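Have a think about this chain, tokens included, and walk me through the fold.
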Amino acid sequence: MGARGATRTLLVMTRADVPNVTVSVDDAATISGAAPSGEPVFAVDGVTVAYQGIPAIADVTFDVKANAITALIGPSGCGKSTLLRSFNRMNDLIVGAKVEGLIEYHGVDLYGQGVDPVEVRRRIGMVFQKPNPFPKSIYDNVAFGPRLRRNRRGLDEIVERALTRAALWDEVKDKLKESAFALSGGQQQRLCIARCLAVEPDVLLMDEPCSALDPIATARIEDLMEELRQDVTILIVTHNMQQAARTSEMTAFITTDVGDDGSRVGRLVEYAETGTIFTTPTDSRTEGYVTGRFG
């Protein structure tokens, strides 16, 4: 069953956190895998992320629409990637990182007591800036997550479906046992997307997924995002204004405030429909950034 309309459990566990491993629990609280019409996937309220007590981004509040592509834009160092990682608790893996405020996922506090970050990361997958396939075959890369979940039945079908959804099946179906490193950069990035899709996520977080790719590979990833948004909510960090304008429905502009003491902290300036951000923003800082006058 796909993410849309599926009912899954947000795990309540005490086991140690092992990234990308999922274990089911019968008596865990259940929540819907798809937001009811009009309800956000994420509700972010007053979120601050600090490293070693120093805020990198502060007091962020906005909602993320279901089955939409939301772009996070802003100058380098403003905290976009830090904010993105907070949506699937990847910051938990960074020593000294602390998230304050509220991030609700389908109404559940992601940082609430008893919420298992491993299950959070299964439902909310992440694609990084540079392709990071495992040193395994193409097949084993995609099968990695289902195998860890002890989901071995129908594994061939799971792999084929994930690669098909990632628009890669036709290119690799005759070389599934070959090393993932034999693929081009764009193919490796789609393989990493397929690896995420194999465990049926509800959300994909994409941290500059096209920054290392050529224009043709970038276009393929953008086309893929448009197809996936039918079933998956996507948040993307990008420095490419054209990409944000082409692909997203909602855009959040984040910039860096510099204090009198030289301290720097990222703050959300404006969040609106992408057309509004790029044509009639309400804040002069947004207009200056999207028109290239600064940043």
About this structure: Residues 1-37 have pLDDT under 50 and may be disordered. Residues 7-290 form a domain with the Rossmann fold fold (CATH 3.40.50.300). The two ends are 43 Å apart (CA to CA).
